[in-house]
Write a structure and sequence with these properties.
This protein is of the alpha/beta class. The chain is built from 7 helices and 6 strands; from the N terminus they run βααβαβαβαββαα. Helices cover 41% and strands 19% of the residues. The chain has a 6-stranded mixed sheet with strand order 2-1-3-6-5-4, sandwiched between helices. Strand 5 and strand 6 form a beta hairpin.
Length: 167
């Protein structure tokens, strides 16, 4: 299944052109390795309204299956990505965030500081990833095996249940 992805980089400095965005391109490369298509990319500042409005517009467009955000998930005062994501999702999907944090803890104790949120708006899955290019790709790799099935379920694909184990 070819997933349609949107990548939202959240960074004050990158949005002002003071620092190149490294995480967005790293995630685009990772998506290409999975055979997925990145159809939207944007950089916004660490601003609640800018993040919320972009996430809602992209999810409501029906043009993307998964929105990956990178940045703004830590403890810094301007890190508001989780709050903006919570404002737009209709249903949480905490297992994805739990899996990413669990896998990241094997790499660094700083994973405990992640406030990443995952959830669903309409038929779009929204996933917060860390701002570090390496950590963003590592976290995407953790959830990548289940993303096609998640999208099948969101699209109510009749074949989505075929891979489930029977009791």
């Amino acid at each position: 299944m070819i997933l349609r992805l949107a990548l939202l980089t959240i960074s004050d400095r990158s949005s002002r052109g003071e620092r190149p965005d490294a995480s967005g391109p790293a995630l685009a490369d990772a998506a290409a390795k999975h055979g997925w298509s990145v159809i939207r990319k944007m950089i916004v500042p660490d601003d609640f309204d800018a993040i919320r409005e972009t996430l809602a517009a992209w999810a409501d467009s029906g043009e993307v299956d998964v929105i990956l955000t990178t940045g703004g998930t830590g403890f810094a005062r301007r890190d508001v990505t989780p709050e903006a994501t919570q404002a737009v999702i209709e249903r949480p999907a905490p297992g994805l965030a739990e899996a990413m944090r669990s896998a990241s803890l094997a790499i660094t104790p700083h994973a405990m500081l992640s406030r990443a949120v995952t959830g669903i708006r309409q038929r779009t899955l929204i996933v917060n990833l860390p701002g570090s290019p390496r950590a963003a790709v590592e976290n995407l790799d953790v959830i990548a095996p289940v993303l096609p099935h998640a999208v099948q379920l969101l699209q109510e694909d009749p074949g989505a249940e075929a891979g489930h184990r029977q009791a």
